[in-house]
Specification:
5-stranded parallel beta sheet; alpha/beta; 20 helices; Helical_ferredxn; 15 strands; 3 domains; FAD/NAD(P)-binding domain; Fumarate Reductase Iron-sulfur Protein, Chain B, domain 2; iron-sulfur
Amino acid sequence: MAGDTLLKFVDRDQAYPAKRDAQARADDFREIAERYASSTAEDQAARCSQCGVPYCSVHCPLHNHIPDWLRLTAEGRLREAYQLSNATSTMPEICGRICPQDRLCEGNCVIEFSGHGAVTIGSVEKFITDTAWEEGWVEPLVPGRPRGQSVGVIGAGPAGLSAAEYLRGYGYDVHVYDRHDRAGGLLTYGIPGFKLEKPVVMRRVDRLKAGGIVFHEGFAVGSDASLDELRARHDAVLIATGVYKARAIKAPGVGAAGVVEALDFLTASNRKGFGDAVPAFDDGSLDAAGKHVVVIGGGDTAMDCVRTAVRQGAASVKCLYRRDRANMPGSQREVANAEEEGVEFVWLSAPQAFDGGDVVSGVKASRMRLGAPDASGRRAPEVDPDGGFSVQADLVIKALGFDAEDLPTMFGAPELGVTRWGTLRVDARSMMTSLEGVFAAGDIVRGASLVVWAIRDGRDVSERMHSWLKAKATNAKVAA
């Protein structure tokens, strides 16, 4: 049967879900592509070659059973396909939307190497789980047998939410602490709706709440409680805060009004989408409407900013990046989407100063050229002495990436060990920090990375914490 259903990549072309017209989608924050029809999803899944060594799974951080659920989809067995995709991921429909599949599963698809175009894995994954939600196949979170132990999770982003779900399934009382007024972290406030509509995130959070996980929203560790107080409150603590400290630009005029941080800009936009009152947006400070916008950076956050500015009605949007297109860290698909929506990319350029005095009016930039490879193997940018230019700007958005905040100071825990990059130092096997019973996972350990890696880390750390908590309970019984 599988032979009749699969291996259709030779006579069946690759087809992603159709994107809405660029002008139409630039007028709203809806996702830019519709979902597959069932027949189309089955046809595209049937292109899978079912290769002996599934490089798609190997290069997926979660090692999802991709060929298996593609086969089930091709055979019309969608409920089984969902159950299999859900077996390794707590958020398959979110990964299907925002993972850079072109660099992970699809980029390593065997039929992509043969010139036939990769299987559209992410779009099929999104289709499977969205269908499961609509059909009622997504089961409630059922807590495991009560263990009489509790866990505190600091941070309600993808790593924290993933770990909380697994730990609740093991039977622990789980409390999640987050400084924002909604759970989800960057899924909620950092990623725009045109990539990830917010009801998709909120239904996952609501499922966790219905499963008995207690969320303490608007709770800032360090001011509302110290880390030591949380350690006294719980049998184990997980730190999964992510990294939120914006990398700085050192240039004259950088402190002028109108030069803003990417996350401030994106959070304001997402809050407006929720209907919140956002004074800095309402007074125009974080609203791109009618402005000439310049975004500095070449990662996915920069792409989120340029495309958000377009939707807010910017007069023009330019992205300055110091390397060329081939060497940028962001998704090439996102660059293409941005170009379709009217964004202008100024490659091989870097800011040198910000004009305008108290209020920014432009960016002075240098032309760059690529020199010898740096330690990462990428060609290092260097200033081209013959090139310089200016760009008009009413709003400049800095999107240069994120570093770790000073958690030992913030949490009142100076003994919490960190690396030279400020990320938390953990034991490679146990994932425990320098403090007994305090674990860490996600970007706060590995540095700014992908959502799928945060989910993987949440899954891994929950297993380590489970083993440690079982041993702790056993030792307590022996001591008694």
